[in-house]
Amino acid sequence: MGCAGSTDKSEEGATKKLRKPKPWKHSEAITRAQLKKMREEFWDTAPHYGGKAEIWDALHAAAEAQLDLAQAIIDSAGIIVTSEDMSVCYDERGAKYELPKYVFSEPINIIKDD
């Protein structure tokens, strides 16, 4: 249940309610430090993939937030989520934003840092 003015736009093909990503496995076991480095590299280069910097910033904030806060960030930025795990999103002008799974969840084969 949301605010009186909130709507679920999933029927119209727009914003979907975010959900926890499905478990996934990286091609090889990685440490949390390696995962952190991969995330940093992605977010440092994300604006070069196209789209608007402020949308990338909102996606970055949402990817690191709890689900309810992430939903609020996505909604307030006007981001259209086509996959419940945020892996494919669009801005209001139709620019596509693709996020790899590792930016918002950990693989099941993560190993402890030494």
TrEMBL record:
Domain DC-UbP/UBTD2 N-terminal intervals: 15-113
Transmembrane segments: none
Annotated spans, Disordered: 1-26
InterPro entries per the UniProt record, alphabetical: DC-UbP/UBTD2_N (IPR032752), DC-UbP/UBTD2_N_sf (IPR038169), UBTD1/2 (IPR039869)
Organism superkingdom: Eukaryota
The protein's name in its UniProt record: DC-UbP/UBTD2 N-terminal domain-containing protein
Species assigned in the record: Adiantum capillus-veneris
